[in-house]
Each structure stands twice: as C-alpha cells, then as structure tokens.
Design goal:
Rossmann fold; 15 helices; alpha/beta; about 30% helix; globular; binds xanthosine-5'-monophosphate; GMP Synthetase, Chain A, domain 3; nine-stranded mixed β-sheet; six-stranded parallel β-sheet
Length: about 525
C-alpha cells in the first residue's frame, strides 16, 4: 500500500492549540492526553527524546511531562533536552516529570526512604500560586505514587503545596511559566485534578477550548476533500464503530465519490448484516456493495479446527473477496481506514509479542495499490464515538461492543459450520438482549456467547439429553489489554441461562467464564 496516508493534522491547524504530552514511560501518558482533550484542547503524545528544536517546530501552546516508573537517580533514567526549558513554552511536570524539572533546573530530589502511594492530603502553601490558589480548597485529597521526593526547589520557584511525605508537592516559577506537581491531577482519585490541569491549559498556556467534535468534523472534512479531490474512494465496512464512523465522515466530505464494501462472512452476530446495510444505504445514503459470501467462508472452513489456521483462512478469504469487489470500482485510488490514535502510538513503540494474529478491515495487504485516507488517526475511541453520534449514526452502531474481525469463527471452538453459527447467533443475541435490558451495556466492555466443541448430559422434561453447552463471557476493561470477568448479577445470569436453554435448540447447559485477562484472553481463540 503506498504509505502516504494523509490525516487531519491538528498540530498545524490554526484552529487548534496543541499541548504536547512528553512520555517518560508512564502508564498515564495517554490518560493525560485524554484529560487535556476533555478540556477541549488538542493534545499529542511525544517521546522524551524530542529535541527543543523539534518541539519548537510543532509550535505547542504548552508541554506536559508525564510521570514515569524510574527514579531520576538511576542510570539511564529518561531525561529531556534541557534547552526545552528555554523554548519559551510553558511546562508542567507531573510526578516524575516534576522531579525531572526540579533536578534539571538545579533543585534537589531526595531518596527519603518514605514513598507515598495512594490518597494523600495536600495542603496549600502560601497563596497556592496559579495552579492551586484562589478558590480551590486549602486542603484537598490527591493521588500520589512516588518514592523519591523533591526536597528543594530550583532557584526562582515557589513551593505552593505540600503533603506529609512531600514537602514540595507543587512548585511554580510563574515568570518562566514552568511548574510541577508531585501528585497525579489526571486520575479520578484527585477530585480537583481536572481543574488543576485546566488552570495550566487556560491560565498559564492561554489555550483556546476549540477541540470540539463538531470542529474536528469540519477540519477533517476539509482535509479529506483536499486529499481525495475528484478521485474515488472505497471503504470496507466491518459493522464495527471505527470503520462506520470513518465511512460516515468521508461520505460527508466527498459524498458519492465514496463506495463502501461490506463483506458478509456469515460469521456476524444475529441481525448485524441487515443493520449495517440498512444504516448505510438507507439512512446515510451511502453507496454500498453488499457481498454475500457466507457459503464461500463455510466451504473454506470445512475441517479447519486450529485457531491460528482458522484466523488466517478467514482473513485471507476476506481480503480476496474485498479485492474482487474493489476491483469492480473503477479508478478507486483511495482506501478509507478507521485507524485510531492508540494504534498510531502503539505502532511507534510497541514490541509486544503477537498473541493472536489479528484480522480486521485494517489488515489489508501491503501490495494493494491505494493511498490511505485515515480521518480518525488523531482520535481516541471515546472521541470517535462522539463524532459518530454527531454524524447521526445510530446508537446501536456507535456504542457497539468491539467484535473480532474473524467474527463468530473464533467463538466456535473446533470446526465452523452453519448449524453451529445459528446456535451461537441465537444464544449470543439473548446474552446481549438481557444485558441491555439490565441497563449494563456501557459498563461491560464485551459480553457474548461461546460454543465449545463438546456435548454434555442433561435432563429436560423426563428425557435425557446429550447436547451442547454455551459459555457466557462478559468482561470489564479499559482498553482490552487487560480485562476482568464481569461480576454480573446472579439473577441476570439466571435469566440468560434459562432463556438460552429454553429458546435455543441443541443447548442443554450454560456456564459462565470467570477468567480475567491475563491469564485468559477475552476471546476463546
Ligand atoms: P483478546 O482475545 O486478544 O482480544 O483478548 C482483545 C480484543 O480484541 C478483539 N479481537 C479482535 N479484533 N480483529 C479485531 O479487530 C481480530 O482478529 C480480533 N481478535 C480479537 C477482541 O474482541 C477484544 O476486544
């Protein structure tokens, strides 16, 4: 694929002020960026190796240093080009970031032997300065996670708050607009944290709160028009949120120059194919090619039982069918993809092992000769959902749970057949319906049914049965990297179980999966 992907570039768009979050290895760097965006200021994450020149080039309104797992005293601890402090850009250091500011500018960071983890009582010192003064409470609860402490601020800095274990819990040099907080304003356990961040953004950096989803739509529509000009674009729809929002956004920009391709693998959830075609063709008025390919998938999956082989088989066939359909669209030169900001960050840094070979519409091969259009590249998932709502996509699509590219194929253990898919679709629909009725949709990351490759004995009426069990899997998660099994109410599980056994022929038992991730994965294959 020719890699010249063009996404809206908010950094150089004069509509938005940009705050850069420098990542020192914190688990919270993404969270900081999201909090900044909640304040309607665009933010991006950059590595700590960024030089002062590179930083200046991006013309940020402010810079936030994240926390990090290291001590500033260990060899190889991440630092930043000290010329950054002379770039005339406001700096806020958080936790490790604050300690780094103190150390690099001539203060003292000590190993006191007494760390602080969890809730701490913060007391304002003096007038509390810009970040903690005025109408914020003199005592407030904050979230701490540090071992070293700043014991002496650099010259020119005022100490504006302390805790029992951190004499310098906040410090400011208002003339240079450099400041630091030892606590974590980005986490919910710091109740006034968002206000502290907003004071930095608005009072110190002078940012404008213009990062709204409607302005994002406007900017990205203009960028897409620029990129595609009079050309034709195609977009593979998977039924998931990302490809749906990307398609709707591109359609808003170029209308009939966009054609969507929806490959119905026969491995979708009950009613999903109808919902996708209905939404896009009728409601959004998008030109849609609906390829009904269930037979080809079932034929290809005959006798395939090994999970990776199954994933590869589904992925390859999907691509072949997509290519065939795309080949029929004359002069299509642009391919729309729903790549999100976390994918962008991850592909820059991740060296994680491949646990499963993921297949999705985004996994199309390199040798397809398209220029990519990726309008969601700067966005987090919650922003994508808000853009989708604003574009008028229905709630069932915008708030849909994540669904794997290989579909029900990886939720049927062993060989995939049409009969098994029918059983699983029926059971899965009940799980989702009951979850929705219980009002738990948005609390649960994913809830679905799995069909294992075994039979068990039961008794129904007066008869012995020898039929299939269904396993219910429901998890809570922030990002699918880790997950916990959901503590669903017992009466809800009971309703699911009764209905599945009563309504789905061929099922005589229901089990609930109580494995977190790790050690399990969310999907069963
Ligand atoms: P696992 O099973 O690895 O899944 O814990 C993590 C998340 O990814 C989804 N998933 C996929 N998504 N293509 C996708 O687009 C895939 O091949 C795929 N496999 C798993 C899964 O549903 C969960 O949300």
């Amino acid at each position: 694929m020719s890699a010249d992907s063009v996404a809206p570039d908010p950094v150089h768009d004069p509509t938005y002020d940009t705050v850069l979050v420098v990542d020192f290895g914190a688990q919270y760097a993404q969270l900081i960026a999201r909090r900044v965006r909640e304040a309607r200021v665009y933010s991006e994450i950059v590595p700590h190796t960024i030089t002062a020149d590179e930083l200046r080039e991006r013309n940020p309104a402010g810079v936030i240093f994240s926390g990090g797992p290291k001590s500033v005293h260990v060899e190889g601890a991440p630092t930043i080009d000290p010329a950054v402090y002379d770039a005339g850009v406001p700096v806020l250091g958080i936790c490790y970031g604050a300690q780094l500011v103190a150390q690099q500018l001539g203060g003292v960071v000590s190993r006191t032997g007494r760390g602080e983890y969890g809730r701490a009582e913060l007391a304002v010192v003096g007038d509390g300065g810009v970040l903690l003064g005025r109408d914020l409470p003199v005592h407030q609860s904050v979230w701490m996670s540090h071992f070293d402490s700043i014991s002496q601020p650099p010259e020119g800095f005022a100490v504006t708050a302390s805790t029992p274990e951190a004499p310098v819990a906040a410090l400011e040099d208002t003339s240079r607009r450099i400041m630091g907080v030892q606590f974590h304003p980005e986490v919910v356990h710091t109740p006034h944290g968002q206000e502290v961040l907003e004071r930095f953004l608005f009072d110190v950096c002078g940012c404008r709160p213009t990062w709204t989803m409607s302005s994002v739509i406007e900017t990205s529509v203009a960028t897409i028009r620029d990129q595609v000009a009079g050309g034709r674009a195609i977009c593979g729809l998977s039924g998931g949120v990302d490809s749906a929002v990307a398609a709707a956004l591109v359609h808003k920009a170029i209308g009939p120059q966009l054609t969507c391709v929806f490959v119905d693998t026969g491995l979708l959830r009950a009613g999903e194919a109808e919902q996708v075609t209905e939404t896009f063709r009728r409601t959004q008025g998008i030109e849609l090619i609906h390829v009904r390919a269930a037979d080809r998938f079932f034929e290809r999956l005959e006798g395939v039982t090994e999970p990776e082989e199954k994933r590869k088989a589904i992925g390859e066939l999907f691509i072949r069918i997509f290519e065939d359909a795309a080949g029929g669209i004359e002069d299509a030169r642009f391919l729309v993809q729903g790549t999100l900001y976390p994918d962008v960050i991850e592909s820059g840094t991740s060296a994680a092992d491949t646990i499963k070979s993921h297949h999705n519409v985004g996994g199309l091969p390199d040798d397809m000769d398209f220029e990519l259009v990726e309008p969601l590249r700067p966005l987090f998932k919650d922003e994508v959902r808000r853009v989708g709502e604003e574009l008028g996509l229905p709630e069932e699509i915008v708030w849909r749970q994540p669904f794997p590219g290989p579909g029900l194929g990886v939720r049927i253990i062993g060989e995939v057949t049409p009969d098994k898919v029918a059983i699983l679709q029926a059971a899965d629909a009940i799980v989702r319906e009951e979850l929705h009725r219980a009002g738990l949709d948005r609390e649960i990351w994913q809830a679905f049914a799995v069909l294992p490759d075994i039979r068990t004995v039961g008794v129904m009426g007066d008869e012995r049965t020898y039929a299939r069990p269904i396993i219910i899997r429901a998890v809570t998660s922030e990002d699918a990297m880790t997950a916990d099994w959901a503590r669903l109410p017992h009466d809800l599980l009971e309703r699911m179980s009764n209905r599945i056994i009563g309504e789905v022929a061929g099922v005589n038992r229901v089990a609930y999966d109580i494995t977190s991730k790790p050690p399990g994965t969310i999907e069963w294959e």
